[in-house]
Amino acid sequence: MASDNSGNSWSTLDKDLNKISNIEYATAYVAKPMVGLGVALVFIVVAGLAAGIFFGSFPSNMIVVAAAGFGAYMAINIGANDVANNMGPAVGANALTMGGAIVIAALFESAGALLAGGDVVSTISKGIIDPAGIENSQIFIWAMMAALISSALWVNLATFVGAPVSTTHSVVGGVMGAGIAAAGFAAVNWPTMGKIAASWVISPVLGGAIAAGCLAFIKAKIIYQEDKIAAARRWVPVLIAIMAAAFSSYLALKGLKRIVKIDIQTSLLIGLACGALTYVISAPLVRRQSEGLENRNKSLKVLFGIPLVFSAALLSFAHGANDVANAVGPLAAIVHASEFGDFSSKVAIPTWVMIIGAFGISFGLFLFGPKLIRMVGSQITKLNPMRAYCVALSAAITVIVASWLGLPVSSTHIAVGGVFGVGFFREWHAERRLKKSAATRAPAKRIAPEERRRRKLVRRSHFMTIVAAWVITVPAAALMSGTIFLILNAFIH
């Protein structure tokens, strides 16, 4: 009898403990947004204080302190929005968990920014405005401050509505708007702006086309073969080698600018050598990994999992090396103008500025990144390791092609364009197979237009939201920046 009572006591205690743990989970869930905002705010304050310690005398350092705070805010927004494009496909394909993706991205983004980030950055964001058109260094500082604030606010708004946008284009719009407000339309380098506008179309279309072509190749050469495993043993090492070659060329061309200047031909030769070496290493590994696998599509996903994780890490490193410098460019310009009293189109980025950028990205990714990672990885179209691999490969190849053609492209637009390319190819391929089966067999049953629309493999609502956000990024950031500059200028005078 005593044992029954003790058993009841334990079960009652278990229920009570479960209730407490449920309350704790609920409290943690409710408090999480506030905790995220709190941590972000602390980081922004610490960045400002660090700038005050590292930088010169009062009162000029107060401008740098404020700029460092806004630079930290911008870096957090890059982590929340831009980095999702590199990690989204791997998470959507279940090759990486959300936690694993965040850890890898934080490490490789920071490493890219600190080890290979360009030590000389065009603070007028690729020559968008002519410094000669600006009256004095004070006006220039307020223009860069306005650009920094407006681009950060715009990326924050885009993250809130769930639209992956280009932070580089946000900075471009911010610099252009502040430049127009400070020195008029004549100060803007319109041919450069024309090239950037062209990249809005070129980046996603090229990324999508390459991703779709890669998926078509995988379907034809591996998925629709009678012996899928034998086909995979033949072609998966080739695909891994192509990716290794593309990433090696990309990193040699873009990521190692700080160490050595490499031209496009040399980078392609480096890529070719790395690709050949990767093939020699990966062929026996793929053969060993494929032993005992069943002859079906599910087995193929295993062979693409590890290469996909490596590609996500390399994309993050390359993104850190490239885009962080663009984001902290206005902050570097403010530091330079405050320190030397002059301004030029190119300045060295102080190490502490790059550290703010690197750590800010990591914090932003950890605190606010999962929303956009889910959007890119699973809410636009359904991804598996083969499809996600095509997106990653297209991102690396597109950047190489764009660099060769001298076009400014956005890594965000390329990656999301790759996801769209894969999704639209799947729609086209499904329709084609449906028509073929209808032609060869008895007519298939009619599908109502509403049902046909429901079965689309790319979510049209997300597609329209993202494209609209891309189109208005530069003008919206420019308008905000011009307004902020006028307010700052009026406040000072």
From TrEMBL:
GO cellular component: membrane
Transmembrane segments: 35-56, 62-80, 87-108, 139-159, 171-190, 196-218, 230-252, 264-281, 302-321, 349-368, 388-405, 411-428, 463-492
Listed InterPro entries: Phos_transporter
Keyword Transmembrane helix carried by entry: yes
GO MF assignments: phosphate transmembrane transporter activity
Entry similarity comment: Belongs to the inorganic phosphate transporter (PiT) (TC 2.A.20) family.
PANTHER family: PHOSPHATE TRANSPORTER
Protein name, UniProt field: Phosphate transporter
UniProt organism field: Shimia litoralis
